[in-house]
Structure formats: structure tokens, C-alpha cells
Amino acid sequence: MSTVSDRTDVIATAGTHRTADTAPGSPAFVRIAAGLALIAFPLLFTAGIATSPPQASDAARDYVASLGADPWLTALSAGLLHYSWVAFALGVLAVIGLVRGPKGRVVVPVAAILTSFSAIQLSGLLMSDWFTGAAARSMPLDAATALTEGVWGDPWISTWQLTGRFVGFVGIPLVIAALARAGVVSWWLLPASVIGFAGFFVPLPGGLGILLGMFVSTAPMIVVGVRLLQRASARVRREELAAA
């Protein structure tokens, strides 16, 4: 994955007494925090997928049984996935500050806000793993499965889940495409954010196809995180101040 050169245009100004700390745009510490959050996102997310409790099949009954079988593993996986989306939701909003030209001034904020909202939805949904696991251990498996299916079948929860899934299937490619249009990252990152979903259809043992696919799909956000860290440097801040 590669990035294109930064399009920050330096326009010399004379007589200014402002420093890089008062330059327009996101403060340096915000860019650093957001950059680190976006770099952590694919790592936490992949770790959460890797630690998902194994299940015999995709059937709801086997899913419920898997969450109840190992409370510690269920909590670890759900926790990693939860904080991966928290990191993404916080970090992705800072990409708005990466836009320097007219291209992307509308689509980047729209993409960032939509995907941040969806990530918040996903992080909240993961609490259900703890409840499902507890139900599987507290009542007969058939009853726990019926309870789980009843909750997930509720229209409110279904809508919540649908809006959350937007970030995984559409949101990340949308953010990458918007940033590529703005000249922040390369268009070559866009295929990676899409083709990773092929992992769902690659029959590798132990769900390795899904694991690798999900990392490939989310890894472009590492490049975006690095771009935010680069924009936090004192040199870039001075250039932004001069261009303001």
C-alpha cells in the first residue's frame, strides 16, 4: 500500500506572529491520537476475529453454544472487537483535516461522519455477546437460542445491526475513495478495502480466509493513520500556517 505525496501548498507570508500550535486545522495531539487509533483499529479488529469462539456451524444454535462454552474467550473477542470500532469511530473523524484542496471537501466529511456513526453502532452491538453467552450457560440451549433469535429479530435491533454493518461493507471503501479523490492516499488502496471480503468465500482451514480477508480490508486505515501522524509534524504545521 502506498500513499501519494502530500498536496500541502506553501504560500509564503510575511509578518506573521502565529506559531504552529495556533495554526488552523486539527491540533497536533488530535492528529497523533487519531492516527494511532486508526493504526490500532485493524490490529484490534483482526485479533478480535482471531479469538472468536469456534462454532460447529453458522446455525444460530451453534453460535449461541459457542459463546456460552468459553466465557473468557467470548469476553476477549468481544472486547477486542468493541474497542477496535471505538478506535475507528474516534480516529476516522480526524481525516476531515487531511483535505487541503477543493477535491474531497464535501465527500470526505460525509464519509467520515457516516462511518463513525456506523462504527459506534457496531461497538454497542457487541455487548450482546456477553448476554448471549450468559443465557447459554443459564438455561437450556434451545431456550437460549430462542431468546437470542427473538432479540435479533426485533425491528429496532435489526435496524441497529443493519446501520452498523454499513461501515464494514461500504464505509471503509467509501472513506478510502474519498481520501483518494482528495489526493491524501493512493487509489491503489481502494481495491484492498474491497477484495478482502473474498475471504468469506475462500475455503481455508480454521477460518483463515476470513481472518486474512478482514485484515486486508481494514489495513488501508493504517496508511490513513500514518498520514495523520505525518501531518502532526512541526514542519507540516508551519506549512499549513503559511498557507492559511
From TrEMBL:
Signal sequence region: none
Protein name listed in UniProt: DUF4386 family protein
Membrane-spanning residues: 28-52, 72-99, 106-127, 162-180, 187-204, 210-229
Keyword Plastid appears in the UniProt entry: no
Keywords: Membrane, Transmembrane, Transmembrane helix
